[in-house]
Amino acid sequence: MSGAGFPAQHLHSGDRHRRLMAAVEGVVMPWIRTKCMDTPFWRATYHANVGGVLVLPAGIFIGNA
User: Fold this and answer.
1) For residue 3, what pLDDT band results from cuts at 50, 70 and 90?
2) Where in the sequence is the domain holding 46, given as residue range(s)?
3) What distance lies between CA 28 and its chain's CA centroid?
4) Angle at CA 27, nearest 5°, toward 23 and 33?
């Protein structure tokens, strides 16, 4: 078993799905903010990306605690 919680032969498949979901999330969240909250698309995209950049070190910090 790999550290990710699934067999190593499925590691590339899992990584591919993770990247796909991150890409979909990166488009869907700004689209919802544009449609429902009247936020310009590129500003909403910026906010989603900055939020993701802030969550990553927080997750690493919590995971190492």
Assistant:
1) low
2) 8-63
3) 11
4) 145
Structure tokens belonging to residue 27 = 């488009």
12 inside domain: yes
Query: Which tokens in the block code for residue 16?
Result: 């591919």
In a domain, 44, yes or no: yes
Q: Which residues of 13-27 are buried (b: 16+ CB within 10 A; e: fewer)?
A: eeeeeeeeeeeeeee
Q: Kindly state the average pLDDT of the residues 38-48.
A: 92
Tell me how many domains the chain contains. 1
Helices of type H across the chain: 11-37, 41-63
Quote the DSSP letter at residue 6: S
Please give the Cα distance from 6 to 27 (Å, whole number): 28
